[in-house]
Amino acid sequence: MIERLVAELSGRGYRVATVKHSHKNFDIDKEGKDSWRHQAAGACATVLSSPSALITIEKRQWDLPLSEVIKIYRDVDIIIIEGYKENPYPKLEMFRAEKNEPLMYDNSEELLAVVGDKPPHCSAPFFTLDDAPLLTGFIEDKLKLNKGQKIPE
Q1: Given CB 3.0 to 4.6 Å as the disulfide criterion, which of 97, 105, 107, 116 pairs with 111?
Q2: CB under 8 Å to 93, separation ≥6 — which residues?
Q3: What residue spans define the domains of the chain?
Q4: Segment 20-71, tens digit of pLDDT
């Protein structure tokens, strides 16, 4: 659904950023590349820059709080975050009937809507996975999105 929301929002002229939080360690660099060798030699940060992309790799001994991650993004209209569930931001919850699990945010004011295969028993608006255009319009209205308006911190 995140991919569909990004496509819908981008198609409507919004600059969209995404954040995916992982509790596991990962490395996006490839062994043997210059940037990998720089880090292996002891660099704590490496930036790869080209006309089409900018990638920053910083080695950390701790997990950054979401408030710090968000500061990285400039000139975007909306940031879609996967993970960082404990943070007080508007939320969409994915619901799969076959998992037979209760909603995490059923009684939370942060819950904007539920997206899934079957409506759960809750008062939040429900959208199917095929409802990306409707969900995008709903998000625009609920969050009062404005293209080109800086996101408040």
Answers
A1: 105
A2: 103, 104, 105, 111, 113, 114, 115, 124
A3: 2-26+62-143
A4: 887 666 667 778 888 888 888 988 888 888 899 888 888 888 888 888 888 8
Distance CA 68, CA 4 (A): 26
User: Which of 54, 69, 58 minimizes the C-alpha distance to 153?
Assistant: 69
Report the C-alpha gap between 146 and 132 in whole angstroms. 19
CATH number among 3.40.50.300, 3.40.50.720, 3.90.70.10, 3.20.20.60, domain 2-26+62-143: 3.40.50.300
Tell me the three state secondary structure of residue 105. coil
Share of the chain above pLDDT 90, in %: 36
Distance CA 118, CA 14 (A): 29
Q: Judging by DSSP bridges, how do beta strands 45-49 and 54-58 pair with one another?
A: antiparallel
Q: What are phi and psi of 17, to 5 degrees?
A: -120, 155
* Distance from C-alpha of 151 to C-alpha of 70, rounded to nearest angstrom: 10
**pLDDT tens, 79-133?**
999 988 888 889 999 998 888 888 888 778 889 999 999 888 888 999 999 999 9
